[in-house]
Amino acid sequence: MTAIRENLAQSIIEAGQFLYGRGWSPATSSNYSARLTSAEVLLTVSGKHKGQLVADDLLAVDMNGISLENGKKPSAETMLHTQLYRWKPEIGAVLHTHSVNATVLSRICRSDSLVFADYELQKAFSGIATHESEVLVPIFENDQDIDRLASRVQPWLDAHPDCVGYLIRGHGLYTWGQRMSDALRQIEAFEFLFECELTMRMLQRT
Ligand SMILES: CSCCC(=O)C(=O)COP(=O)(O)O
Ligand SMILES: [Zn+2]
Predict the structure, then answer these.
(1) Which of 56, 176, 177, 197 has the fewest CB atoms inside 10 Å of its own CB, making it the most exposed?
(2) Which parts of the sequence bind Zn(2+) (predicted)?
């Protein structure tokens, strides 16, 4: 194994331990990846417990999501990762999680997007410098056909080059960053905002 792959593998394993520990990747849900080269991505295999990943639970795929390693089954959601790496060459890591708050908020929100405004923590997202900006988060309907889901995500990405993440209704969150630490920071920022939003909505009902 090359040193680059070893380091990226370790960053994915540690991300899984952190995200599982926070309760955002329960019951084998979620998938994580990191860019290996301009043409290859290191990704979690399908169906593993994400808090107990080992190096053998990762495999390389090409930018079309084709496995480059015999005998390993890539994540069912591989295409949602590779489309992001193809979209922006500067993306180095992609994280997908299944938190309670992401799931509930995406289900109670009837529209096809959420807007976060006036939260200082918005500045945790790459490219956001002030709470006065707005973070627009699309919500795509869930689909067991991941290629079809990816084909609905793509036009949004093309039309919103500043997009920092998206929700899949009743399913979970996708976000990304230049490095794994950036993607992790964005997951935490989203989770904070989801919790604020849910709390605000509950208080507004009373
Ligand atoms: C048990 S969660 C259902 C599948 C899913 O949504 C997920 O994130 C994990 O799929 P994978 O194939 O990457 O293990
Ligand atoms: Zn999922």
Answers:
(1) 56
(2) 96, 98
